[in-house]
Amino acid sequence: MNSKMNSNLKCLAQATAIALLWTVTATSAHEGMWMPGQTAEVGAAMRADGLQIDPARLRRLDADPLNAIVSLGGCSASFVSPQGLVATNHHCVFGSIQYNSKEGQDYLTNGFLAKSLGEELPAAPGSRIYVIEDMRDVTAGMLKGVSDKLNGLARYERLDANRKALIAACEGQPNRRCDVGAYYGGASYYLQQKLEIQDVRLVYAPALGIGNFGGETDNWTWPRHTGDFGFYRAYVAPDGSSRPYARDNVPYRPKSWLRIAPEGVQEGDFVMVAGFPATTNRLRTAGEVRFNFGPFEPLLQHLLSDYAAQIKQATAGNRDAQIRYAPILRGVENYEKKLGGDLAGADAIGLNARKANEEKAYRDWVDDDPARQARYGAAIRELDAMVAENSRASLEGLRQALLGRAQILSSARTLFRWAKEHEKPDEDRESGFQDRDRNGTVDQLRQIERGYLPDIDRKLFEAALDEYRRLDAKDRDTAFETALDQIGLDRLYADTKLADTATRLGWLGKPATAFEASDDPFIKLAVALYPGDIAAEGVKKDRAGRTQAARATYVQGLRAYRQAIGRPVYPDANGSLRITWGKVTGRTRDGQIWTPFTTAEGLLAKHTGKGEFDAPDAAVAAIRAKDYGPYVAPALGTLPVDFLSTVDITNGNSGSATLNGRGEFVGLAFDGTLEGVISDWAPDADRNRSIHVDSRFMLWTMDKIDGAGRLLKEMGVRPASRS
How far apart are CA 708 and CA 617, in angstroms? Predict the structure, then answer.
């Protein structure tokens, strides 16, 4: 045989082996965060696993169940009543609970229940409900005028201009919020059109001892006994149009809503999740994996761990401060713990070696054919170079970003940047500073009032500065440091007027010259930082443009390779609507058995009456009396709390509706396990498990503990007890 035939046979054997491996792995892992339009590819597999509705329904955004799925702009949620009632996670409404809490009115600890529509409270500033309406391919529009002749910065700016034009055309429709996402490394683009509901109100959240039972101790672990659920409601003007909070606004009437499955789920049942997963990195290169799990994540984990300790120390003994900084602390601790799972998981599955082997197979496939070499070879080499360049910049960026921990300084930088951008026509302004962004900017500036105390902010800023100064002098901003030395920290906090919300908002829209003439110390710092910010941004854009050019072609080749070996490819998560499915199942390891359900008795066994394991007295009493009503799971003989499944989720899926094979509501996805978080980088059938709060525990808490019969009836559920 000649060398060409040898090469082809070798490639065929390799492809066959990998294809067989993929068949086994995919069947057991239920891997994939699929776009609605891709359900044609996986519909047969979903039906085989237990989907009872026509898979074609999952491609329709104008019908249930997908029409009932909404985004909160960071969390997922769903309509569960014809009056705009929205179910999501407790931790997704946590900011609104905190915003409405204060000493003497501690909804964080005690929970909140509106007894009527009139008692429902405005959510935290910036809260939105986005109703998905359309998702269309705009690749041609995004790549208009883009060519290999453009340098990195020019390429970035052309893509950015095209994106803004597409969004502007979409948002010419009233009350719409549109975005364009990159898929497959920027090889294709889709526009997501959503109805933006601006009046969001807090309806119900259980006590902390239910909604966050187990706290940080149990976070990312199994067994879990957390009732991580809460409710918002969408409101609109009487004529049905979207507008901000007004007393005469009325509940929104969604086109569809999810029905509650009366029987819940049992072990082995099919379940699917629909939501808006934020970010995965499964199509990254081996070099990016080595960097992420080498220097990057360990440093980030260290910085977050220190930040959490600093917040706790600064707020110790001050309940008002603890309430104000609770959302920040919770987010920091959650991510820091996830990073620990990431690092341990990478070692456990041998991620570096796995990724290197996968990449070698792809690159060998490219090298085995001159036509493929010509098409993809240069992009592979260029992407390798960009990975090295981006890695160096990312480490510097971690410490440079620490200045953002000073909340008033961040506001001053936003305000001055707004002024500078508004010297340009709207279409030429930086994304985030256009007219379409004004309401969001106002909400961002206002939100500080319930999450800021100057003495706490100063302590956190001082600690951030200590870490920032570890950067090499060439990577620090000399103008900023000179200005800070001249002002001094005492004057910085004593003389600023920006801590007052009305004053802060009053600066929005003032000309840049007013900022440059201001004596406010935080504004002076913002003005000093601006030239360096712009210069760094230009360099970053140039890198982004060059990276996109290389990655788009690289991933095109990767898709062609995987198609050649019979492996379907879904894009990495990017905040757009996705569908994933799996089975309700536990996990067995050497010396360890995870049952698929946890129960009320397990919650009671963990209850200590102190700290993170302090369930409400009413819940403890009802569990001891086994007062479960109709919410018992027959197969368990008791009340289920949470359950495990093999669905494939990540950050952003929090609050996602969990549906049975008929498309009915059976719970909410709210977490993964530390062993499984590595799936963001490489899905692992054995380790990946997702955690859901069982709808029966939600209904029991609403009915038996908190007397939320009004909401149950609205959801089509008959309360077992009078309320």
Answer: 17
Question: CB-based contacts of 695: which residues, under 8 Å, 6+ apart?
Answer: 260, 261, 264, 665, 666, 667, 668
pLDDT at 2 over 90: no
Q: CB of 546 within 8 A of CB of 382?
A: yes
What are the counts of helices (DSSP H) followed by strands (DSSP E) for the chain?
A: 25, 20
Q: Which of 129, 100, 124, 271 is nearest to 198 (CA)?
A: 129
The fraction of the chain above a pLDDT of 70, given in percent, is: 96
Neighbours of 490 (CB within 10 A): 10
pLDDT at 721: 65
Sign of CA dihedral 433, 436, 438, 444: negative
**Exposed/middle/buried for residue 522 (C-beta within 10 Å: 0-12, 13-18, 19+):** buried
Give me 429's structure tokens: 């302004």
Known catalytic residue at 654: yes
State phi, psi for 428 to the nearest 5 degrees: -95, -5
For the segment 176-188, what is each residue's pLDDT rounded down to a tens digit?
Answer: 999 999 999 999 9
Quick check: bond before 36 cis, omega within 30? no
Q: Rounded to whole angstroms, how far apart are CA atoms 512 and 295?
A: 39
Q: What are the pLDDT digits (tens) for 487-510? A: 999 999 999 999 999 999 999 999
Assess contact for 572 and 267: CB atoms under 8 A.
no
| pLDDT given for residue 104 in this prediction | 84
Tokens of 163: 């994106």
**Average pLDDT of the segment spanning 657-686:** 95
State the CB neighbour count (10 A cutoff) for residue 371.
8
Residue 226 phi, psi dihedral angles, 5° rounding: -105, 130
CB 179 within 8 A of CB 191: yes
Look at residue 619 and tell me whether its pLDDT is greater than 90.
Answer: yes
Answer yes or no: are the C-beta atoms of 648 and 29 closer than 8 Å: yes
Indicate which residue of 96, 127, 654, 679 is catalytic.
Answer: 654
Average pLDDT over residues 69-94: 97
What's the CA gap between 159 and 154, in Å, rounded? 9
| Residue 6 clears pLDDT 80, i.e. is over it | no
| 3-class SS of residue 179 | strand
The CA-based angle 31-37-43, given to 5 degrees, is 55
pTM: 0.90
659 with 271: CB under 8 angstroms? yes
Residue type, 368: D
Residue 464 has pLDDT above 90, yes or no: yes
CA distance 700 to 208: 16
Answer whether 215's CB lies under 8 Å from 221's CB: no
Residue 4 has pLDDT above 60, yes or no: no
Average pLDDT value for residue range 535-563: 96
Instruction: Identify the active-site residue in 179, 199, 218, 228.
Output: 228
Distances (CA, A) of 375 to 185, 447, 556: 16, 50, 10
697: left (phi over 0), alpha (psi -120 to 50) or beta: alpha
The band of 13, judged by pLDDT with boundaries at 50, 70 and 90, is: very low
pLDDT at position 17, please? 36
C-beta separation of 661 from 589 below 8 A: no
Half-sphere exposure of residue 444: CA atoms within 13 angstroms, side-chain side: 16
Residue 607 near residue 613, CB atoms below 8 Å: yes
pLDDT of residue 155: 98
- Tell me the C-alpha distance between 120 and 123, whole Å: 9
Would you say 460 and 311 are in contact if contact means Cβ atoms under 8 Å apart? yes
Q: What are phi and psi of 257, to 5 degrees?
A: -150, 160
